[in-house]
Amino acid sequence: MIRVINFSGGKSSALMAILLKPTPDDIVLFTDTGWEHPLTYKFIKDFELFEGIKVHKTTYSNKKSGNEKGFEALVNTRKSLPNRMKRLCTVDLKVMTAKRYLRSLGIRTFENYIGFRIDEPQRVSRHSEQFKKVFTKFPLYDQGITKNMVNQYWLLKPYNLEIPSILGNCDLCFLKGKDNIIKILQLYPELANKWIKAEEGKLGTFIQGVKYKDLLQIAQSQKSLFDLSEAMPAYNCSCTN
User: Fold this and answer.
1) What element of type H or E holds 178?
2) What pLDDT digit, counting tens, does each position of 128-145 carry?
């Protein structure tokens, strides 16, 4: 059976892909939201170069989005924005986009590999199969691999993901929580621009009761810088890391 190895551009899923030793028949799949940190894309290129593993890449688009793709296409073709209670982005940008790509290759039945670790039991327990004839496995969880073990592994490699884990997946994802977003914007204020633009003229906001332009202002008013190395998302995200 074909194996689909979900690769988010993070260290855990990259290690999973390496351990699984993909064959040419397997699909290492990166579903690109378009709003990842630039160093995530660099890590993916380095991964392909150093590991000799092909990464299949696909991005959301629809008939209304024209040349726009990913998160930009999603928010610009909808009246309302995704939020913590209505996570359109996870469904449309990740799950359904991956499904369409695999079906374009004629793949409907496969083993689905996700890089949740042993220290993420809640993510494993909450997982539910989205489609028939899909059989999900969690090899890092099954092998007892922790976040610390993942980090130690990458210290021995000639390349690494050069950003704190909090910056993985969409750079300012609302699931990271207001406090973490403010901390990130202290160091990377330029990341706010696309999120601020996305909220203009839309119903609601990404985070209830506050706009990203407000979070940027708060970040710029802070005098002391925060350490991002130990920051953890405020809410669980289904996107692999």
Assistant:
1) helix 178-187
2) 776 778 999 999 999 999
